[in-house]
Specification:
305 residues; mainly alpha; Farnesyl Diphosphate Synthase; 15 helices; 0% strand
Length: 305
């Protein structure tokens, strides 16, 4: 295999793998930064910008900054959870050398510099939203994830940051120009995302029981039986899928028939992907399949509104 081909294969492996072992510091660093989540964050940002009537420049700044914030939060979390990840046989980056310290400090500098520079273009509401996302992301690792269920709720809510920031900005700053008919779809899709992400966070805990016990944490999978957990996942997923079909079918921009077709196709696709994800035997497979769903939902916004 040629050098270029080996480099491409290794790069694809690094980008698409959650917990696979890495052979270099940079590989571990970029894996822990979860760059694979960036497309979903950006697509979600543009979808909510479309719904809440923000321009593409604002969507790019908010989405790009939230990508950086998410990576910083994941890196910080992995530093604090190094022992727990080791117990779960997960090979992730942590601060082990001067190079690691420089990488983390550089990331912190880039995140804060980008947020400060963006605040000169964004409204005060959006700038405060970005600052809040940074604070909550760091607080998640320090406090929230160690409190029963709170960590799951906060992690799911953090993923709604693009929608929450833009919706707040529209209601507070652009109230006069904001089309109130966009409020219901924006709120509905935010609810869908929250329910799906909450279920996903609980499922992640099912894979991480050994490490969570080592870290002295109490999670829902430690308290409930497999059957009870499956019932919770089913309730959250079914509610999300039904809500997708309902909001697209009732509030889409096309005729009722076309809206219903788009809504049912979106809901069916999401349901099939989620079913495949929840029967996956590994955390990595589950992560990849649910990540696709996080792209399907924003795409349905572009198609329907």
């Amino acid at each position: 295999m040629s050098f270029v081909k080996r480099l491409i294969v290794r790069g694809m492996y690094t980008f698409n793998t959650v917990d696979a072992p890495a052979s270099t510091t940079l590989q571990r660093f970029f894996m822990s930064a979860r760059l694979g989540l960036w497309p979903a964050i950006m697509v979600s940002s543009f979808a909510f910008a479309h719904l809440t009537q923000h321009n593409w420049q604002t969507a790019t700044l908010i989405g790009g900054n939230l990508c950086l914030v998410a990576s910083l939060a994941f890196l910080f979390n992995d530093i604090r959870d190094a022992d727990i990840d080791a117990a779960n046989n997960i090979s992730r980056w942590s601060v082990r050398s001067p190079i690691d310290r420089h990488l983390f400090r550089t990331t912190v500098g880039v995140v804060f510099a980008s947020a400060i520079a963006s605040s000169f273009y964004l409204s005060a509401t959006a700038a405060v939203g970005l600052a809040a996302a940074i604070c909550v992301g760091l607080a998640y690792s320090i406090v929230c994830k160690r409190i029963f269920l709170l960590g799951n709720v906060v992690a799911a809510a953090l993923s709604l940051s693009p929608g929450l920031i833009m919706l707040s900005n529209s209601l507070i700053i652009n109230r006069a120009d904001f089309d109130a008919t966009s409020l219901l779809p924006a709120a509905a899709f935010s609810t869908v995302a929250f329910l799906l992400l909450l279920s996903r966070e609980i499922k992640f805990d099912e894979f991480d029981i050994a490490g969570d016990r080592l870290g002295g944490r109490t999670t829902l999978p430690m308290k409930l039986s497999t059957r009870s957990l499956n019932n919770i996942h089913a309730l959250l997923v079914v509610a999300s899928v039904v809500l997708i079909a309902a909001i697209v079918g009732c509030a889409g921009r096309y005729s009722m028939v076309v809206n219903l077709i788009i809504g049912l196709l979106t809901a069916t696709t999401a349901a099939a992907l989620l079913h495949a994800a929840y029967i996956s035997p590994s955390k990595e497979a589950f992560y990849k399949k649910t990540r696709i769903v996080m792209l399907v939902v924003p795409v349905s916004i572009f198609l329907s509104f």
